[in-house]
Amino acid sequence: MGLFAALKRTRTARQIAGQAGEDHALHYLREHGLTLVERNFRCKGGEIDLIMQELDSLVFVEVRKRSDASHGGAAASVTARKQARLIIAAQVFLQRHAMPPPCRFDVVAIDGGEVTWLKNAIEA
């Protein structure tokens, strides 16, 4: 492995914390009966942290983690711009399906160690 490749793979503390938050959210959602379809779906228009299946529905999940609830907390950090990028990414993902299944957008907010699961948190 070359030096450039090694440097490119070095993750920041923020990326590591984000990964830990996604791991926590994934574990939480699995405990509540959802199954993982895809993780970190990326396209030109945006990214979806977790794509889960609940019964016959696809659930697009944005995970937000904050060390505490100050400044509005984790859920408040899902801005209108972020919501628009999630919707674009979901539209790209759904192009795989001839007949897209029912779907919704959820947010898993982690403030400190407290998990809040907001179903249908984003209107598409």
UniProtKB/TrEMBL annotation:
One function term, GO molecular function aspect: nucleic acid binding
Gene3D superfamilies linked: 3.40.1350.10
SUPFAM superfamilies the UniProt entry points to: Restriction endonuclease-like
Family: Belongs to the UPF0102 family.
Protein name per its UniProtKB record: UPF0102 protein D3870_01370
InterPro entries for this protein: Restrct_endonuc-II-like, tRNA_endonuc-like_dom_sf, UPF0102_YraN-like
Domain of life: Bacteria
Pfam short name (any one): UPF0102
